[in-house]
Write a structure and sequence with these properties.
It comes from Peptacetobacter hominis. By secondary structure, the chain is α/β, with parallel strands linked by helices. Helix content is 33%, strand content 24%. The chain folds into three domains: 93 residues, MurE/MurF, N-terminal domain (Udp-n-acetylmuramoylalanyl-d-glutamate--2,6- Diaminopimelate Ligase, Chain: A, domain 1); 226 residues, 3-Layer(aba) Sandwich (UDP-N-acetylmuramoyl-L-alanine:D-glutamate ligase); 151 residues, Protein-Tyrosine Phosphatase, Chain A, CATH 3.90.190.20. The longest helix has 17 residues. Bound molecules: ligand UAG, adenosine-5'-triphosphate (ATP), 2,6-diaminopimelic acid and magnesium ion. 2,6-diaminopimelic acid (API) binds next to loops.
C-alpha cells in the first residue's frame, strides 16, 4: 500500500521525503523490520523506539513514523505526529483496510471473567456453525491457526493484522478480551466493536492505573466504541457507574445480574460441585439454565454470554444446550482427577476478588479441610498482595504461600508483601518459595474429603523467573504428585 493511503485521515505535525512510496509492512519493533517496512517509533515505559531508527534503517526501513524531531536520513521519509502510539492504531487499521468493520467483534472487559466469557461464547457460536476468531489470554485463533498468546490484548498493529487474517479466513465474528492496558494504551483504537461486555471492577493493575477510578475510566472507553449493544453487570459497583454514563448513548444497553433488577437476571440459583443451575429471566422470556462449572461467578459470566447471544440472534436452544455441554475453561476452576477422594482444583484467581470467590465456591462442597496454594506475580500491582494474603488465610483452613511468576522482583519481597496481610498469630499458613514443593506438600498432606486449591497460574505452562520463562504447569505438577501417592 502507498504511504499516502496509509496516512489517509491522519493528522501530521510535519512530513519530509517521498509520500508516494510503497509500504510492504508496518512494525513498531525494529527487530521485526524487513525491507519496505514502515517503522513506528513508540516512546515506551522501558525504552524509546526513536533509539532504534538506525537499526531499522539497516534492516531496510526507509519510512519512519516519529513523535520526536529527528535527524533526516537521505532517501528516507519521516512523518511526524503528536502521539505515535495513538496514530499507530489508525495507521494499522488503514494498512489492514479496516478489517474489524467487516465482521462482528465482541469485546469483553472487566477485572475477572474475560477469558471465561470469550471461551463460552466461542463454544456456543461454533456450535451454531459460525466461524469464530478468538483473542485473549490463553490463545489467539484466526480461523485457521492457533497460537499461544503473550498478552491478553495484542498491540494495535498485531491486532489489526489478526483481524485481517480472520477476514481472509472467513470468520463471521471474533470474541475478544479487551484489557484495561489495551484501552489506555490505544491498542484497540480504530477497532469497530459491535458488542461490549463489562464483567466487574475490583482492585488490580493499580501499579499502572494508580487509582480505581482511572482503572474504571479505562474500561469504560470500550463502551463508547461499540456500535450495536453494551452489556453491563449491574450488580457490580463499577458496572453501575459505567451504566449511568452510557445508558443514554445511541448504542443499546442491556444489564445483567442477580441482586438487582436487570434485563437478564438469574433467580432460583443452585450451586454445587457439579455446576450451577438457575432460572434465566430475559426480556419477555424465562429459561432453565445449567452450566457444569461451579461458582456464582459462572452465573454472572453465563448471563453476559446469554445477553450477547440474544443480541447476535442466536436461537435460545443453541445457547441453552451449549452452556449445558460446555467443557469449561482451561485452568479456571479445573479439577485434576484422582482416586484419593481429594478435590484438587487449579484456578487462575490472581486478584483478591477472584481468590475470595473461588475459595468460597470450594468451601461450599468441601467436607474436610480447604487447603490453598497461591502467590502473587512480580512486576505487577503490589497493593493486591496483602489483600490476597488476608483472604487466602481467612478463607482456607491451611494455606501455603508460594511463588507465582516473580519476574524481575525479589520473591522474598513479594511474599513479605503478602505476609503483611496475614494474622501471624494464626499458625495455619506456611511459606514455601518453590511452587512445586508447595503443591507437593499441599496434596501429600491432604486427606479424603479435603480440597486443595492451587490458584494464580491456571492455564499457564511456564513460570517467569527474572526474564526467563521456565516450563511449569500447575495441573501437570499436581498430576505428578497424585501419581506418586
Ligand atoms: C505496560 C505495557 O503494557 N507495556 C507494553 C508496551 O511496552 P513499552 O511501551 O514500555 O515498550 P518499551 O519496551 O519501552 O519499548 C518502546 C518501543 O521500542 C521498541 N523497541 C524496543 C527494543 C528494540 O530493540 N527495538 C525496538 O524497536 C518496542 O517495540 C516499543 O515499540 O508496549 C509493548 C509493545 O506492545 C508491550 O509488549 C508492553 O507490554 C508489557 C510487556 C506488559 O507486560 N504488559 C502487560 C502489563 C499488559 O499489557 N497486560 C495486559 C493484561 C492485563 C490483564 O488482563 O490482566 C494485556 O493486555 O496483556
Ligand atoms: N465473573 C467473575 N467474577 C469474579 N471472579 C471471576 C469471574 N469469572 C472468573 N473469575 C475468577 O477469576 C479468575 C480469572 O478468570 P478469567 O481468566 O476468566 O478472567 P480474565 O478477566 O480473563 O483475567 P485476565 O485479566 O488475567 O485476563 C478465574 O480463575 C476465577 O477464579
Ligand atoms: N493478565 C494478568 C495475569 C496475571 C497472572 C499471574 N500468574 C501473574 O503472573 O501475576 C496480568 O498480567 O496481570
Ligand atoms: Mg483473560
Amino acid at each position: 500500500m502507498k504511504l499516502n493511503d496509509i496516512l489517509k485521515g491522519i493528522e501530521t505535525v510535519s512530513v519530509s521525503g517521498d509520500m508516494n512510496v510503497e509500504i510492504s509492512d508496518i512494525q513498531y519493533d525494529s527487530r521485526k523490520v524487513e525491507e519496505g517496512t514502515m517503522f513506528i517509533c513508540i516512546k515506551g515505559f522501558v525504552s524509546d523506539g526513536h533509539k532504534y531508527i538506525k537499526s531499522a534503517y539497516e534492516k531496510g526501513a526507509r519510512v519512519f513514523l516519529v513523535q520526536d524531531e529527528v535527524d533526516d536520513i537521505e532517501g528516507c521519509t519521516f512523518v511526524q505526529v503528536a502521539d505515535t502510539r495513538k496514530t499507530m492504531a489508525e495507521v494499522a487499521a488503514n494498512f489492514c483496510e479496516h478489517p474489524s468493520e467487516k465482521f462482528e467483534v465482541i469485546g469483553v472487559t472487566g477485572t475477572n471473567g474475560k477469558t471465561s466469557i470469550t471461551t463460552f461464547l466461542n463454544e456456543i457460536l461454533r456450535s451454531d456453525n459460525k466461524k469464530v476468531g478468538l483473542i485473549g489470554t490463553i490463545k489467539i485463533f484466526d480461523g485457521d491457526n492457533e497460537v499461544v498468546s503473550n498478552s491478553t490484548t495484542p498491540e494495535s498493529v498485531d491486532l489489526q493484522k489478526i483481524f485481517k487474517k480472520m477476514i481472509e479466513n472467513r470468520c463471521d465474528c471474533c470474541a475478544m478480551e479487551v484489557s484495561s492496558h489495551s484501552l489506555e494504551l490505544n491498542r484497540v483504537d480504530s477497532t469497530d466493536f459491535k458488542i461490549g461486555i463489562f464483567t466487574n471492577l475490583t482492585p488490580d493493575h493499580l501499579d499502572f492505573h494508580k487509582t480505581l477510578e482511572n482503572y474504571r475510566n479505562a474500561k469504560e472507553k470500550l463502551f463508547h466504541k461499540t456500535s450495536e449493544a453494551n452489556i453491563i453487570n449491574i450488580d457490580d459497583c463499577g458496572g453501575e457507574v459505567i451504566y449511568s454514563h452510557i445508558k443514554n448513548l445511541d448504542t443499546k444497553c442491556y444489564t445483567y445480574g442477580i441482586e438487582k433488577e436487570a434485563d437478564f437476571r438469574a433467580t432460583d440459583i443452585h450451586s454445587d460441585a457439579s455446576g450451577v443451575s438457575y432460572t434465566l429471566n430475559g426480556p419477555g422470556f424465562e429459561e432453565k439454565i445449567f452450566v457444569p462449572v461451579p461458582g456464582m461467578f459462572t452465573v454472572y459470566n453465563t448471563l453476559a454470554v446469554i445477553a450477547a447471544c440474544e443480541v447476535l440472534g442466536i436461537e435460545r436452544r443453541v445457547y441453552v444446550e451449549g452452556l449445558k455441554n460446555t467443557g469449561g475453561v482451561s485452568g479456571r476452576f479445573e479439577t485434576v482427577p484422582n482416586d484419593k477422594g481429594i478435590s484438587v482444583i487449579v484456578d487462575y484467581a490472581h486478584t483478591p476478588d477472584a481468590l475470595e470467590n473461588v475459595l468460597n465456591t470450594a468451601r461450599e462442597f468441601t467436607k474436610g479441610n480447604l487447603i490453598s496454594v497461591f502467590g502473587c506475580g512480580g512486576d505487577r500491582d503490589s497493593e493486591k498482595r496483602p489483600l490476597m494474603g488476608e483472604i487466602g488465610q481467612r478463607l482456607s483452613d491451611r494455606c501455603i504461600i508460594t511463588n507465582d511468576n516473580p519476574r524481575t522482583e525479589n520473591p522474598e519481597k513479594i511474599i513479605d508483601d503478602i505476609k503483611a496481610g496475614l494474622d501471624i498469630e494464626r499458625h495455619n499458613y506456611e511459606i514455601i518459595y518453590d511452587r512445586k514443593e508447595a503443591i507437593e506438600k499441599a496434596i501429600k498432606n491432604a486427606c479424603e474429603g479435603d480440597t486443595v486449591l492451587i490458584a494464580g497460574k491456571g492455564h499457564e505452562n511456564y513460570q517467569i523467573i527474572g526474564t526467563v520463562k521456565h516450563h511449569f504447569d500447575d495441573k501437570e505438577t499436581a498430576r505428578e504428585v497424585i501419581d506418586s501417592l
